[in-house]
């Protein structure tokens, strides 16, 4: 299958998350660290569905890991209980071993609740040394990036 | 060292937990499932400090596990933000493979916030079959039970 | 609209939950207290979609609450990372002020992962005194119960 | 009481946190978003003990809030199950309405596990508009900063 066909088939990931009672604090808005939970679960879904390799399989079968080395969170306006947050993921940069992604949480009008930039590094397990991103992943990441640019 | 000396040395476990902002829901009281978190962390501490074997060591070095098969929670009055909960653990029953413990969360006046009964079963890993509680654990559990009865 | 029509329209609630990396412990299976999280979020969804009143609205606009007074968890087999849990909710008993529900988590073959029985009591806020379940809720609960019985 | 005496009395905050089984993921290390939980709970303790105003009292009695507008996390090495993390908090910058703090998590040898920079902004509630940091807080923040500098 050619890369062109892949690129056509890939759809930008959208995850929908209703803010639950237990995700909120006594001020009635999302508890701050939950935003990083939402972003990491979006990245996890992206690994499962777009890269095609869930973290567990990556760890146990392929002896690799993709840990977070840096995260930056910008809180624009806090979602409250029962709000529905649409999460999207964009690829910001792709290095030798590192991948920078941006998870944005938006309301139904497309306005940002928050933005979370995550830098991940591919490593060998159990050595915990960085590893060049393998061609299969690189191709899928670039195809995803191309698919996202078409709609932005 | 004799069992008598052990029994004298063992102290009933007390864990203090301040209810944080993020543990509470928009009603300003502890979010219900957090009570089970508090109870399980108390049981984990008890395994580490009283049985002398943290769960990770039990799992990876001794090829055993102590999973929960049943839990019963009674909510008497909900602690609120900044309340300090004192958690104590009592041994309720000790079977061939199973251990029943009761974690009680109390306020500073000794009144109950909640009671959590947990039934754990010792298993072999990775077979996941029940296993007779080993003599070393049994002796420590009985010594702990005796120490608790003295102060009740 | 007659109750008969209601009963026809109501569908038994099914919630699908993929077990994420962060929901699991170092043994690779769901961390015990997460099961109560899953059950409570199912009950919350049921309040929002079947009773038609999210907890936040219940609390802030209607001056009521529906706190949990008792919960019983049976762990049959633990779901692992990337497993998909189907959660269903059945009404077990309906008293003057109390509602007993059973949330069951199942695998794709319909086998139980866990069962969680939750007793909730309707209260007036901020008095925190029990309150007779209002006719609107009672009718919807009975219609839901009837709809579930048809498929069991 | 003079500011000098305050400054002498204030001690840099140290919080000790044992990494529990439920805080870790199937790789046996802390689940990434938990690091932000640890940092936020340290900041909450600092508000309670150093500023002398728990968030709940700030919100409900003083009609103020201190929400996070930005957070930056650097993961140096991940703590694993049963590791003890010592958390310390330093004041990095103090603006008109904003406070920048740095929470560092370290092992027993003083090496960093992670660093979390948090920017908070004082607001009026329920208007949600930024507000000049009140003199009582400013004085305590500066006294704390001076106390930390003495030991660094």
3D structure, described in words:
Four copies of one chain form a homotetramer. Chain A is an alpha+beta fold and 152 residues long. Helices cover 33% and strands 32% of the residues of chain A. Chain A contains four helices and eight strands; from the N terminus they run αβααβββββββα. Chain A has helices spanning 3-9, 32-51, 55-60, 135-151; strands at residues 14-18, 64-65, 68-75, 84-94, 98-106, 112-121, 123-124, 129-130. In chain A, the strands form two sheets. In chain A, strands 1-4-5-6-3 form a five-stranded antiparallel beta sheet. In chain A, strands 2-7-8 form a three-stranded antiparallel beta sheet. In chain A, α1 crosses α4 (135-151). The first copy, chain A, is globular and about 45 Å long. The two termini of chain A are 26 Å apart. Chains in contact: A-B, A-C, A-D, B-C, B-D, C-D. The A-D interface holds A 26-27, 32-33, 36-37, 40, 55-56, 59, 65, 67-75, 78, 125 and D 26-27, 32-33, 36-37, 40, 56, 59, 65, 67-75, 78, 125. β3 of chain B pairs antiparallel with β3 of chain C, so a sheet runs across the interface.
Q: Report low-confidence residues of chain A grouped into runs of 5 or more.
A: 1-7
- What does the overall shape of chain A look like? globular
Going by helix content, strand content and strand pairing, the class of chain A is: alpha+beta
Strand content of chain A: 25-35%
Largest interface: A-D, 22 and 21 residues
Measure the end-to-end span of chain A.
Answer: 26 Å
Strand order of the largest sheet of chain A: 1-4-5-6-3
Quaternary structure annotation:
homotetramer
Specify Rg of chain A, calculated over alpha carbons.
16 Å
The string of secondary-structure elements of chain A, in order, is HEHHEEEEEEEH
Work out the helicity level of chain A.
Answer: 25-40%
Mean pLDDT of chain A: 94
Quick one: how many beta strands of chain A?
Answer: 8
User: What does the largest sheet of chain A look like?
Assistant: 5 strands, antiparallel
What is the number of helices of chain A? 4
């Amino acid at each position: 299958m050619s890369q062109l066909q892949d690129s056509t088939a890939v759809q930008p990931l959208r995850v929908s998350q209703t803010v639950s009672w237990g995700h909120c604090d006594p001020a009635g808005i999302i508890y701050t660290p939950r935003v990083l939970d939402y972003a990491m679960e979006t990245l996890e879904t992206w690994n499962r569905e777009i890269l095609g390799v869930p973290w567990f399989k990556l760890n146990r079968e392929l002896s690799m890991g993709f840990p977070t080395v840096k995260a930056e969170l910008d809180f624009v306006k806090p979602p409250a209980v029962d709000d529905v947050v649409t999460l999207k993921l964009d690829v910001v940069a792709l290095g030798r071993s590192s991948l920078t992604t941006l998870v944005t949480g938006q309301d139904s009008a497309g306005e940002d609740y928050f933005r979370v930039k995550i830098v991940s590094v591919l490593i060998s397990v159990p050595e915990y040394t960085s590893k060049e991103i393998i061609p299969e992943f690189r191709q899928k990441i670039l195809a995803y990036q191309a698919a996202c640019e078409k709609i932005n």
